Amino acid sequence: MGKGVVFFLFLGLLLFASCDQTRVYDDYASVPGEWHRDSVVQFRFQAPDTVKNYNLFINLRNNSDYPFSNLYLITELNFPNGKVISDTLQYEMAAPTGEWLGTGFGDVKESKLWYKENIKFTESGEYLVTIQHAMRKRDSVKGIENLDGITEVGFRIEDIKQ
Questions:
Q1: Is residue 11 helix, strand or coil?
Q2: Superkingdom, according to UniProt (predicted)?
């Protein structure tokens, strides 16, 4: 490979990596086949700067096997000192026309969903975010045991540009 080709590959990689300047933490966990109702997706991370504020997101990748237009999630944000903030969240996954709201081409769509806005990690140490689905069919008390169509669950922390 010539020096010019290597240079342009390096330059392209550098430009690609620098485009996401707000990312502080970004990780995904695969959901093999079906997402069982008792399966909890976990993300452990060290507290970023304890003085700055951040936006938190849940990223989901779904395919056309997902049978609903919305999604309910139960989340927990566990602080290093033992404090826990639990939330039940609802997100729209499809427009009234049935078209998926996420981005992407083909069968898989990615949705970047707001989790928490303008949050400060006041304690240094390790945090834990847990996510599990809370889907159920209309007029049913029992939750859906195995949820089809969710292929990956992600968690992202973004720096707030001031």
A1: helix
A2: Bacteria
pLDDT above 60 (res 99)? yes
Under DSSP, is residue 155 helix (H, G, I), strand (E, B) or coil?
strand
Tell me if 146 is assigned to some domain. yes
Question: Is 141 a member of any domain?
Answer: yes
**Total structural domains within the chain:** 1
CATH of the domain at 126: 2.60.120
Q: What is the pTM assigned to this prediction?
A: 0.83
Element (H, E) at 13: helix 3-18
Return d(Cα 51, Cα 64) in angstroms, integer.
42
Residue 47: closest CA among 161, 132, 157, 131: 157
pLDDT at 143 over 90: no
> Rounded to the nearest 5°, which phi and psi values hold at 5?
-65, -45
Q: What are the angstrom distances between the C-alpha of 113 and each of 51, 55, 92, 116, 148? A: 24, 11, 9, 9, 19
Widest CA span in the chain: 65
Is 82 inside any structural domain? Answer: yes
